[in-house]
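Hi both,

Apologies for the delay on this - the queue was longer than expected. I finally got the SN-glycerol-3-phosphate-bound model through. Below you'll find the protein sequence and the ligand SMILES exactly as submitted, and right after that the structure tokens for the full complex including the ligand.
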Amino acid sequence: MRITVLGAGSWGTTVASVLTRRDHESLIWARSPATADEINAKHTNERYLEGFPLPGRLRATADLAEAAAHAELLVVGVPTGAFRDTLVQVRPNLHPWIPVVSLSKGLERDSLLRMTEVIKEVLPGHPAAALTGPNLAKEIMAGMAAATVIATEDLTVATEIQRVFRRGLLRVYTNHDVIGCEVGGALKNVVAIATGIAQGLGVGDNTRAGVISRGLAELTTLAVAMGGEPSTLAGLAGMGDLVATCISPQSRNRHVGEQLGRGRSLDDILAEMGQVAEGVKTVHAAVRLADRHGLAMPITRTIHRVVTGDITAEHAYGGLLRTHPAGHESDPG
Ligand SMILES: NC(=O)c1ccc[n+]([C@@H]2O[C@H](COP(=O)([O-])OP(=O)(O)OC[C@H]3O[C@@H](n4cnc5c(N)ncnc54)[C@H](O)[C@@H]3O)[C@@H](O)[C@H]2O)c1
Ligand SMILES: O=P(O)(O)OC[C@H](O)CO
């Protein structure tokens, strides 16, 4: 199958590599012509996947029109802040009705939409799906066993995409609860910043486990308020991804939190990283959604105050496990 992956960062390049090794005719779009040239000539992407050889058959282009016209299946792996614009640009050259799969984990800042909702707005008529779960790019590149979820309401489309992605030790599950899957993937990044802060401040494992567990309660509360199913958040797209992101030193969101916990400024951390940490932006939308649904979500609100510079990470620490302003504290709800 001819598949186009938009975005040649760590995850887009990893997914394009998996699909190429799965014998699909994959074309990856890189914003930077230098990255496209490097992938075509040297079969590497050193900025994002240092030390990993890419499959020789993976082709890259910096021409978005060419990338769009190639696709029988479109996979979108640009950061959520660039998601809508990128889809608008590919729209004129896209074949009608082809499925579009989002790899991106976050919420659109102004509209508060999930990425499959953005797909449906910009590309009406195209089936929209999300690929999400505990999927740290470098582990997948290294061929380590991993599980992921393809989320879409239509089981026929889900099964078809499942077949396209399934390879070797990458096990692909389906889930019809797109809301639960996307809210889990977006919110776990915010909780990972919180766990990172705890790590950076040198707290104990009990504290970190407390933040992860209460974080899961926030993922679940928001997802259910938005129409998702609680069981989704207990699975790969919720707890699975939350645990991977909160415990792994590879996570960029956790890294941001850890550096904040060590007293560094957010601007310095982001400038040095040169990679996306979606939780930093998604937290703004998450707080507005919490307000809309009348939810306490103290971890999310605390991280929002840190990210906006209202309080320091050290100040945040005392509030991370606060449950409810009225003093009602029950677990897990
Ligand atoms: N890296 C992972 O392990 C991983 C795993 C699962 C999901 N994701 C999600 O995938 C998405 C992409 O993450 P990533 O890890 O590949 O990020 P990255 O920082 O490694 O790469 C981002 C890519 O997007 C491009 N980009 C940045 N701004 C752009 C813009 N304005 N227009 C077009 N392209 C732009 C960059 O050039 C780069 O190629 C994120 O939403 C992330 O949460 C990442
Ligand atoms: O590096 P992060 O924090 O963006 O997390 C990567 C993946 O989403 C983990 O599943």
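Main takeaway for now: The longest strand covers residues 146-151.

I'll put the files on the shared drive as well.

H.
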